């Protein structure tokens, strides 16, 4: 079985006429787009590309792409790469050295309970709409998912070994009044 892959970026569009692209990095450090070597172009496939960052541009990076056919130097070819997600093997990521830092992918699937130990649901996804990270919780009893801010005011404990997150459920988190 292959290692789980993590999406660390996306080619958003072509840039200019010489085959450059704009790349959005999903991590804290854009260097991760080339630091880990060739990046997979799908979660399960074998095709890879190499990204060379050139300059920041409107919240993304202008970059050169090298494929198995060589460096992309044509806008039309670059345009076909629009929307390509960039993946690495999870094992390529460095170990986390702090107890209060987490990879989003490691939080997905964890059980969520309230401060009294009552099951609330599981983490379906981790989102960030611009302000801060939010845990998207799929309720145990069914119904629509809801969000809990991944912040000290709401998160009491994250136990990676037990795969459990304890949250303080304040009024309104589930959309209740």
Compute the CA-based radius of gyration: 19 Å
The rough form would be described as: elongated
What's the tally of helices? 3
Oligomeric state of the chains present here: single chain
Helix content: under 10%
Q: How many strands, which pairing sense, and closed or not: the largest β-sheet?
A: 7 strands, antiparallel
Span of the ends, CA to CA = 46 Å
Elements, N to C (H/E): EEHEEEEHEHEEEEEE
Number of strands: 13
Strand content: 35-45%
- Mean pLDDT, as a whole number? 89
Low-confidence stretches: none
| Structural class assignment | mainly beta
Quickly list its features:
177 residues; mainly beta; 7-stranded antiparallel beta sheet; 6-stranded mixed beta sheet; 8% helix
Written account of the structure:
By secondary structure, the chain is mostly beta strands. Helices cover 8% and strands 44% of the residues. The chain has helices at 32-35, 75-80, 104-107; strands spanning 5-15, 20-25, 39-40, 48-57, 60-67, 70-71, 85-89, 111-114, 119-128, 133-139, 146-149, 155-159, 164-167. A hairpin with a 2-residue loop joins strand 5 (60-67) and strand 6 (70-71). The radius of gyration is 19 Å and the shape is elongated.
Give a brief outline of the structure.
The protein has three helices and 13 strands; from the N terminus they run E-E-H-E-E-E-E-H-E-H-E-E-E-E-E-E. It is mainly beta and 177 residues long. Strands 1, 2, 3, 4, 5, 6 and 7 form a seven-stranded antiparallel β-sheet that branches.
Reconstruct the topology from this structure:
Elements (H helix, E strand, L loop, with lengths): L4 E11 L4 E6 L6 H4 L3 E2 L7 E10 L2 E8 L2 E2 L3 H6 L4 E5 L14 H4 L3 E4 L4 E10 L4 E7 L6 E4 L5 E5 L4 E4 L10
């Amino acid at each position: 079985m292959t290692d789980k892959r993590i999406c660390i970026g996306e080619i958003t569009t072509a840039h200019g006429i010489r085959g450059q692209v704009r790349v959005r990095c999903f991590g804290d450090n854009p260097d991760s787009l080339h630091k880990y070597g060739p990046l997979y172009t799908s979660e399960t496939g074998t095709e890879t590309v190499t990204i060379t960052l050139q300059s920041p541009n409107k919240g993304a990076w202008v970059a050169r792409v090298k494929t198995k056919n060589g460096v992309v130097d044509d806008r039309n070819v670059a345009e076909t790469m629009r929307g390509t997600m960039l993946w690495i093997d999870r094992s390529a990521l460095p170990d986390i050295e702090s107890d209060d830092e987490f990879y989003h992918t490691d939080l997905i699937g964890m059980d969520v309970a309230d401060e009294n130990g009552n099951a609330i649901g599981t983490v379906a996804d981790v989102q960030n709409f611009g302000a801060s990270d939010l845990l998207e919780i799929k309720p145990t009893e069914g119904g629509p998912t809801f969000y809990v801010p991944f912040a000290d005011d709401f998160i009491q404990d994250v136990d990676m070994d037990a795969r459990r997150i304890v949250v303080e459920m304040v009024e309104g988190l589930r959309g209740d009044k």
